[in-house]
Design a protein that fits this description.
The complex is a heterotrimer of chains A (about 1000), B (about 190) and C (about 110).
Chain A lengths: L2 E2 L8 E10 L2 E7 L3 H7 L4 E4 L6 E3 L11 E4 L6 E5 L10 E3 L14 H4 L8 H7 L2 H15 L14 E13 L3 H12 L4 E4 L9 H4 L2 E2 L2 E2 H13 L4 E4 L2 E6 L4 E7 L12 E13 L3 E3 L12 E3 H11 L1 E2 L4 E5 L3 H11 L7 E3 L7 H8 L4 E3 L1 E7 L6 E6 L8 E4 L2 E5 L2 E3 L2 H4 L5 E4 L4 E4 L14 E3 L9 H11 L10 E2 L18 H4 L3 E3 L4 E2 H9 L5 H8 L12 H12 L3 H4 L13 H5 L16 H6 L3 E5 L2 E6 L7 H14 L1 E5 L4 E6 L3 H8 L12 E7 L5 E11 L2 E6 L4 H14 L7 E4 L4 E7 L3 H8 L14 E6 L2 E6 L8 E7 L3 H12 L4 E3 L2 H10 L34 H4 L2 H4 L4 E8 L10 E7 L5 E13 L4 E9 L8 E6 L2 E8 L14
Parallel strand pairs in A: 2-8, 9-10, 9-16, 10-13, 16-30, 18-26, 20-21, 20-26, 21-22, 36-46
Antiparallel strand pairs in A: 1-19, 2-3, 4-5, 6-7, 6-8, 11-12, 11-31, 14-15, 15-16, 17-27, 23-24, 24-25, 28-29, 32-33, 34-35, 36-42, 37-40, 37-41, 38-39, 39-40, 42-45, 43-44, 44-45, 47-50, 47-52, 48-49, 49-50, 51-52
Helix pairs in contact in A: 5-7, 5-12, 8-9, 9-10, 14-16, 20-25, 23-24
Chain B lengths: L11 E3 L3 E4 L4 E6 L6 H10 L9 E4 L2 E7 L2 E6 L4 H11 L6 E4 L4 E7 L3 H6 L14 E6 L2 E9 L2 E7 L3 H11 L10
Antiparallel strand pairs in B: 1-2, 2-8, 3-6, 3-7, 4-5, 5-6, 8-11, 9-10, 10-11
Helix pairs in contact in B: 1-2
Chain C lengths: L2 E3 L6 E3 L4 E5 L11 H9 L7 E7 L7 E7 L5 E6 L7 H10 L8
Antiparallel strand pairs in C: 1-2, 3-4, 4-5, 5-6
Classes of the chains: A alpha+beta (about 1000), B alpha+beta (about 190), C alpha+beta (about 110).
Chain lengths: ~1000, ~190, ~110
């Protein structure tokens, strides 16, 4: 059993007990514990069930590489699945639950899968998807759905908050172990800005656990000293609990800081996503121990040797009373010595190497530990907990020599440098056969914006596994001179011997039980099967077997899997290569990715100066670009449709008030401004007299209509161009693009003045009366005829009054300074009370304009429509030699008389056509779909006419006036007649009044 | 003029830095060939400010002149003087190819003050504030909108954004300045 | 994520402050041009593996369009320069040639 030792534990504070629960059982740990350490201290080795076979699984590791010991953490809205117990700092009240077990962790029905080992081989899903067809849907899927999944998903929105932050540094050191600290000190001493990020809460990494001495001091003391001196340097920033997730192009680094995971209930942001630009990245990310592949190596109680040592030294937790160590290297002997120091029993060390002569083995032998050379584990006995190991000859086929009773196995297959951050941005690796590991190839490092290498690994991450070499390498990576490097003292380790399978000649019955990828239940036999079935590429084999595709991303399993695959393919490991290392290094939260962008500030909300008034009136909003515009202002008891009808009728009969502030207003000025606008618009703007307005169409170089609006000539050399609400920024950018990149010798300046002016449309038969009541300007028919503007003062507010109409009514649009927009709006409301004034919204605009047959860019256009399609030839100059889009509009497809063109549509029964419906045509197209001959682009109920009106694009439309088309909606046929698109006041008497 | 109001009417928020919408501020956009000397002269006459160098902002009394791009300046003057200053500039540069526009109402101005003011903006802008000296104006983005930022006083940064997004920017600044969420102790 | 230095304002802007604009140094064909020339202008874009010239706008900065020479494989940036020119500056071409001797040159 596992238990808390009476003394020791360098990271725990025994004066601060913390209560928590696991599967509802009350447990107690200490401040400084990880959840895994606290669970072990409470003799909870069994944590969950495996993904596929529901085999019992325990704690295997002590850090980010842990594949098994995942729990659902928290409750209610804060429940989060797949939380790694080995990296979760214990906090008071933590509530953890096992995953993937039903009905309970100890008795799990899904474990029947375990008996069906042979029926769930590699590629099971691919095979059952393919054949037989019915089996997946009716047989496998229902079963798999029941047993699959890695824990519960919260059903409520995340109640925590998150944020992001930017940082800049000359040198970013990833990893706060002794290598990272040494590199940071060297770089900082040279005066560079240094940022050190450490994923755990502690500095120093493994060195203090391994009992290394540095510069004559115990590692802990050296670490404290260096951290203090770094902390005192103004050019150094140290951040712990911050995991470097990814290194990208041009020194871009993303890291996640766990600000408040260990401080639940505070108002702090839970996670902070750091977006960092680093001149250079030093990946002092250490190395991860590999498991050994022997039968039943996933039995709870089988752990990494380094993890066993961590639990004893860091948290005073004994993973077991009797621990058998099985290894192919010297490092694991440290675990045996540590266990002895803690008063625990090590019955034997099984060393796969034929001959063992190093300093550490000598120390173990001197303390009386039985060291068996050339031996391995044939099989682990026990179900939910290790009971014994069967010893065999590593060179053989697994004949059992003896059985040793134990409750813990500490295994070590050697170490894999953590090269993720080097590989992510394109750094290449080389194979170190002697140590059985991939190391970064410094000749093929990732390169940055200047073409120079910008990522280097340091210390163990660079393959310098032994303390002295590790520190020397790190110091030099930080730019330090060799002489000044910190000196580490530790026993010299003899070479390891790569072992990929134990024993090397294991028969299939054993290989079926050797786990490579614990979380995804991938066994040695699965990888071998994939190779036999032709998956020779490592990337294919990975996807076929799912090796390395679990949430640990194969940190422990990849190299072992590669070695097995290479062996099966009969080729050396470097010929097989590795899979691609992709960010994030460990999972990051969606909350951190979203950062502050949620709720009210998910996206910018643009507000006009009258926004608050609209809101207070209970306006129903319509999003337009990033603005919100009132769709209508429903009164008590009114539906939205009733409100729209009322607003339309009132505008036609009395006077309506519209907040048109969102319309784009671009000032274009200069000696060449007229010439320039003649290129931007299809019509001629250069001849527009000062004081007059003209409707303009803007196309892109493809000839398609992208925007429209009224242009006013303010003076001899300046024009004010109105755009659609959504088009202001894009049309201004369009203008600047052509000015800067094509006609840079033309003397033209532009400025986007959209937000300088609030704009209010006053529309309807009483519009003039209202303006006259406001007072200050002559707005008579004579002084201000249709399509002109005037400047002056209305209601004491500086105003520019445009006599333009998008409704067919007598209409003025008044631009006033935004700061006085609300004052002007109020003045209008006050003056309008006895004139029947009502505000109206965007839907009323749409109805009013549709009654007049005016188009809206985005309704009648969809990026494939040219102005000629819309009967807007009158706004296109035939005389101009050029405008943007002209050449494209001359292409054969654009001039083809077969194009769909705009017409009005009226249903025979007066009903409203559904939006977007199609009119079928005889025959089918090349894809066997019915041909079509038209579609509805705008459709409304017209309160003015008391029936439905619509516009649509119809094949040769204007040539087919009076023809009746069948439109299909929801299987029903609606008959509509092609007609003139102007439904109301065809002669424009009202707007010219 | 009738009761002009700024975007947020001087709203403020107290966090680990103080966020204040600074009220009405006169702003004039001036586009033209900055190299000719005519503009330098006119700006000097109208505001007292020398022509700012690339990315610079120069202040003289109540006026500032900021370099926005190789052919654009932003002049800051008291709100009530903006129209007159724009008119004076227009008159002085009447014969030149320039664009002068009063944009006071198109923008909002915020002050972020306190010793940790930088940290508020470091959460929103991809800018190396440690390398942003006084006297430099940095145009960038704050989260999802355009912003111009400079050090307007010791322990104070100023931010100009478009007026329509003033509410969004205020909310961004306020949440980023929340007590306890400092990026570092100093 | 790229960082490009705007040649107008000197800011080393990150990609989120920039807007991409596709291939640089296109020649506009307008009315009177042949169908083939116009089609090539409108649709044909080079997509080289290696040295490439691109348009970028310092959208969240000074608002200016500039041009960048970049390696599409390594993302090395050879230089940025103003948009008001018909071909890359000769010194930039020479610098690229020195770093990428196999490059066929600006065409």
């Amino acid at each position: 059993m596992s238990t808390r030792l009476a003394t020791g534990g360098r990271l725990i504070d025994r004066t601060k007990p913390l209560d928590f629960s696991f599967d509802g059982r009350a447990m107690r740990g200490y401040a400084g514990d990880t959840l895994a350490a606290a669970l072990l201290a409470n003799n909870q080795m069994l944590i969950g069930r495996s993904f596929k076979y529901h085999r019992p699984r325990g704690i295997l590791a002590s850090g980010v590489e842990e594949p098994n010991a995942m729990v659902a953490l928290g409750q209610g809205a804060r429940i989060e699945p797949d939380q790694r117990t080995t990296t979760t700092e214990l906090f008071a009240g933590a509530s953890a639950a096992s995953q993937n077990a039903w009905p309970s962790l100890d008795f799990d029905i899904g474990a029947l899968n375990n008996l069906a080992y042979r029926f769930l081989p590699a590629g099971f899903y691919y095979k059952t998807f393919m054949f037989p067809r019915f089996a997946w849907k009716h047989l496998f899927e229902p079963v798999v759905r029941q047993s699959a999944g890695m824990g519960p998903v919260p059903k409520q929105p995340d109640p925590d908050r998150y944020e992001q932050a930017y940082d800049f540094t000359d040198v970013l050191v990833a990893g706060g172990g002794v290598a990272g600290l040494a590199a940071a000190l060297a770089a900082a001493s040279a005066g560079q800005r240094v940022l050190v990020l450490e994923q755990t809460a502690h500095w120093g990494g493994r060195a203090p656990v391994d009992g290394i001495e540095i510069d004559g001091k115990p590692a802990d003391a050296w670490v404290a000293e260096i951290v203090a001196s770094l902390g005192a340097m103004p050019n150094v920033t140290l951040r712990n609990r911050t995991m470097v997730a990814g290194v990208y192009d041009h020194g871009y680094v993303v890291a996640q800081e766990a600000v408040a995971d260990h401080l639940p209930g505070t108002d702090l942001p839970r996670h902070r996503l750091w977006r960092i630009r680093a001149g250079r990245v030093i990946a002092a990310t250490g190395a991860i121990e590999r498991p050994l592949a022997f039968a039943a190596n996933d039995t709870p109680g089988v752990m990494l040797a380094s993890a066993v040592r961590d639990y004893v030294v860091n948290w005073a937790v004994s993973p077991g009373d009797r621990t058998v160590v099985v290894t192919n290297n010297d490092d694991a002997y440290r675990t045996a010595l540590t266990l002895l120091d803690a008063g625990l029993v090590v019955p034997a060390i099984l060393d796969a190497r034929a001959s063992v002569t190093g300093e550490l083995p000598a120390m173990a032998r001197a303390r009386g530990i039985r060291v068996l050379e050339g031996r391995g584990i044939a099989k682990v006995k026990g179900g939910k907990r290790v009971k014994a190991v069967q010893v065999c000859v590593q060179a053989g086929e697994g004949a059992v020599l003896e059985t040793i009773a134990c409750d813990c196995v500490a295994m070590s297959g050697g170490f894999s440098p953590v090269v993720h951050l080097y590989s992510q941005p394109g750094g290449k690796l080389q194979w170190d056969g002697a140590n059985g590991m991939f190391t970064p190839d410094p000749a093929r490092a990732p390169t940055g914006a200047d073409g120079a290498a910008f990522v280097a690994c340091a210390g163990a991450a660079a393959g310098a596994l032994q303390a002295a070499a590790c520190l020397a390498d790190a110091h030099s990576a930080g730019g330090g001179k060799a002489k000044a490097a910190p000196k580490a003292a530790a026993p010299v380790e003899a070479p390891m011997h790569p072992v990929w399978m134990m024993p090397q000649g294991a028969p299939v019955a054993l290989r079926f039980k050797m786990l490579l990828d614990y979380q995804n239940d991938v066994k040695v036999s699965d990888v071998q099967l994939a190779a036999r079935e032709g998956y020779e590429s490592v990337e294919h084999a990975k996807r076929y077997t799912t090796l390395g595709m679990a949430s640990d991303q194969g940190k422990m399993s990849n190299i072992n899997g590669l070695a097995i695959l290479s062996d099966a393919l009969g080729q050396p490991i470097p010929a097989t290569g590795t899979t691609t290392f992709r960010p994030p290094y460990t999972p990051i939260s969606f909350g951190a990715v979203a950062g502050e962008a949620r709720g009210e500030i998910f996206a910018p909300l643009r507000r006009t100066p009258m926004h608050a008034w609209h809101e207070a009136q209970g306006a129903h909003w319509e999003p337009v670009g990033l603005w919100r515009r009132p769709y209508c202002y429903p009164r008590a008891g009114e539906t939205h449709a009733q409100a729209v009808n009322r607003e339309v009728a009132n505008t036609r009969n009395n006077v309506g008030l519209l907040d048109a502030s969102t319309l784009g207003k671009i000032l274009v000025k200069g000696p060449d401004a007229g010439r320039f606008l003649d290129m931007i618009y299809t019509g001629v703007m250069s001849t527009l007299p000062v004081g007059k307005c003209r409707y303009g169409l803007t196309c892109n170089e493809n000839g398609f209509l992208i925007d429209d609006g009224v242009v006013a000539r303010l003076s001899d050399d300046s024009w004010l161009c109105h755009t659609t609400s959504g088009g202001a920024d894009s049309i201004h950018a369009h203008m600047e693009n052509w000015l800067q990149c094509e006609w840079w010798d033309w003397k033209v300046y532009s400025a986007n003045l959209t937000e300088q002016f609030a704009q209010v449309a006053i529309v309807g038969p009483n519009a003039r009366k209202l303006l006259e009541k406001l007072g200050g300007m002559d707005v008579s028919r004579e002084a201000l005829p249709f399509m002109t503007f005037a400047e002056g003062t209305l209601a004491g507010i500086p105003s520019r009054v445009f006599r333009i109409s998008f409704s067919g009514e007598l209409s003025y649009e008044v631009a006033v300074p935004t700061s006085q927009g609300m004052a002007f709006w109020n003045a209008c409301l006050e003056a309008g009370t006895e004139l029947g004034l009502m505000p109206y919204g965007t839907e009323a605009i749409h109805v009013l304009r549709a009654e007049k047959g005016f188009i809206i860019v985005g309704d009648e256009t969809d990026g494939t429509v040219i102005p000629q399609d819309l009967g807007l030839g009158w706004a296109i100059s035939k005389k101009k030699p050029d405008y943007i889009g002209k050449r494209a509009q001359e292409r054969s497809h654009m001039t083809n008389p077969e194009r769909w063109r705009l017409v009005g549509l009226e249903t025979l029964d007066g009903s409203v056509l559904p939006d977007g419906v199609l009119a079928p045509a005889p025959g089918v197209n090349a894809n066997g779909q019915r041909n079509t001959q038209g579609r509805v682009t705008s459709t409304y109920f017209s309160p003015t006419l008391g029936r439905g009106i619509a516009m649509g694009l119809v094949h040769r439309g204007p040539e087919r006036m009076g023809e009746v088309l069948d439109f299909i909606a929801d299987g029903k046929t609606i008959k509509a007649r092609i007609c003139d698109q102007v439904f109301f006041d065809k002669d424009g008497e009202k707007q010219n009044a | 003029m009738r009761d002009p109001v700024s975007a947020l009417g001087g709203q403020s928020h107290e966090g680990f830095a103080r966020i204040t919408e600074a009220g009405l501020q006169g702003m004039i956009t001036l586009r033209g060939d900055l190299a000719t000397g005519a503009i330098a002269k006119a700006v000097k006459a109208a505001t007292g400010c020398a022509l700012p160098a690339q990315r610079a902002i120069v202040t003289k009394g109540t006026a500032s002149a900021a370099w926005m791009s190789p052919d654009e300046l932003l002049l800051l003057v008291p709100y009530t003087e903006a129209e007159a200053t724009a008119a004076a500039l227009s008159a002085a540069l009447a014969g030149d190819h320039v664009l002068i526009a009063n944009v006071s109402d198109a923008r909002a101005l915020f002050r972020i003050s306190g010793v940790k003011a930088d940290q508020v903006l470091a959460k929103l802008c991809p800018v190396d504030f440690a390398r942003l000296p006084a006297g430099e104006l940095r145009r960038t983005r704050a989260a999802q909108v355009a912003a111009a930022i400079w050090r307007s006083a010791p322990d104070e940064l100023s931010l100009i954004c478009f007026r329509s997004v003033a509410g969004y920017v205020f909310d961004l600044l306020a949440i980023s300045a929340r007590e306890g969420s400092e990026l570092s102790p100093t | 994520m790229l960082t490009l230095t705007c040649p107008y304002c000197g800011v080393a802007a990150e990609e989120t402050e920039l807007a991409p604009g596709g291939e640089a140094h296109l020649t506009r064909f307008g009315p009177g041009s042949s169908d083939d020339d116009f089609e090539a202008y409108l649709f044909s874009r080079s997509n080289p593996k290696g040295v490439h010239f691109e348009r970028w706008r310092h959208a969240y900065g000074c608002g200016k369009w500039f041009l960048a020479a970049r390696c599409t494989v390594t993302l090395e940036v050879f230089g940025t320069y103003p948009a008001q020119c018909f071909a890359p500056p000769p010194e930039l071409i020479a610098a690229i040639k020195a770093k990428r001797p196999e490059w066929k040159g600006f065409q």
